[in-house]
Amino acid sequence: MAEGPFGVRLFDVGIVALVIAATEINVITGSGPGAVPLDLRAYLLGALLAVPILFRHRYPFQVMLACAALIFFYYIFARRNISPAPVFFVRPPGSPTTRSPASSWSARSPRRLTSAGR
Q: Which residues, 6+ apart, have CB-to-CB distance to 40 below 8 Å?
């Protein structure tokens, strides 16, 4: 598969678009105590969560950590209870995150983030 600038593949751009759509549905339906109003800022921050996925083939473990950090800060500052599942669903098969000792952490990270957001 041909890579574009920075190792981004056209297929990854399509996946990011789907993840952004799923995340925005979560942003619209999510709420929580002290949640920010549903405005342009909430939508843009929700879309920003999927941007690291563009680099998932070149830096899979770093992408997972970046997504975890972005979701954590989204929970802190936006206070919208969204599911981390769309962002963590797209780890490439056979990546270091699925073969390394960190795979157990990466498998539990959506559950940890969800419980931290409550």
A: none
